[in-house]
Each structure stands twice: as C-alpha cells, then as structure tokens.
From TrEMBL:
GO terms for cellular component: mitochondrial envelope; respiratory chain complex IV. It comes from Anopheles farauti. InterPro entries: Cyt_c_oxidase_su5b (IPR002124), Cyt_c_oxidase_su5b_sf (IPR036972). Pfam families: COX5B. This is Cytochrome c oxidase subunit 5B, mitochondrial. Keywords: Metal-binding, Zinc. Zn(2+) binds at residues 83, 85, 105, 107. One of its GO terms (biological process) is mitochondrial electron transport, cytochrome c to oxygen. GO terms for molecular function: metal ion binding. PANTHER family: CYTOCHROME C OXIDASE SUBUNIT 5B, ISOFORM A-RELATED, CYTOCHROME C OXIDASE SUBUNIT 5B, MITOCHONDRIAL.
Length: 119
C-alpha cells in the first residue's frame, strides 16, 4: 500500500512540473514593441524628447489679466483646471475651461484654453 501511495504522489509531482524557455531568458523585449494605441504614442513621444506629452505638469501663473490670461494647452474643447489661489492654501480651486472663453478664477486670475495638437 505504501509503494502504491508513493507512486501516485511521484506521478502527480511529475505532471505539475513544466519547463519553459522564458525561465532561461535573460532580458525582456523593448516595451515599445508590446505597446499599442495611446500608450505606444506616449512612449514614442517620450522617446522623441517630450517628457510630458499630455501637458499634465504644473504651470506657474503669469500676470493673469483679462488682456493677457494664463494660456492652458488642450487637445479638447474643455479641460478641468485647478488653481491654488494663495501660497499657503491647502486645497485646490477647480474650474472647467472651454475653448474660446476666458474664465476668471475666484482669486482674480484669468485663464484661457488654447488649442494643442493631440498626442
């Protein structure tokens, strides 16, 4: 009976062991080869030297007057923009900007959406 149990366990252990060549591979392919769609365009833009293809960085406010508003690039007709009105403020004042319509924040700075080519 003991030898029969031993053979069953040994056979089950052999069945579950598999060997694949991936285990012996020392390096992965380039991520650009695996990427598709918007992810691939983002990787290609970063490779071309544009570290922020979606313009997600923080902009410093300029004068922000009605005659020369802060320009915010966007590839769409509208964009959600956050303004930290005072230096020691602990929250962000959010507002929607629409193409062609400058908008004034509660702190008095003006913002305007300008067209940017999509990624």
């Amino acid at each position: 009976m003991a030898s029969l149990c031993g053979r069953i366990v040994l056979a089950a252990a052999k069945r579950n062991v598999t060997y694949t060549p991936v285990r012996f591979c020392k390096m992965m392919n380039d991520p650009i080869e695996h990427a598709t769609g918007i992810e691939k365009r983002e990787l290609l833009a970063k490779q071309a030297g544009n570290p922020d293809p979606f313009d997600m960085r923080v902009f410093k406010r300029g004068p922000g007057t009605k005659d020369s508003p802060n320009l915010i690039p966007s590839a769409f007709d509208a964009r959600l923009v956050g303004c930290v009105c005072e230096e020691d403020q602990t929250y962000v004042q959010w507002m929607w900007l629409y193409q062609g319509q400058p908008k004034r924040c509660e702190c008095g700075h003006w913002f305007k959406l300008v067209e940017k080519a999509p990624v």
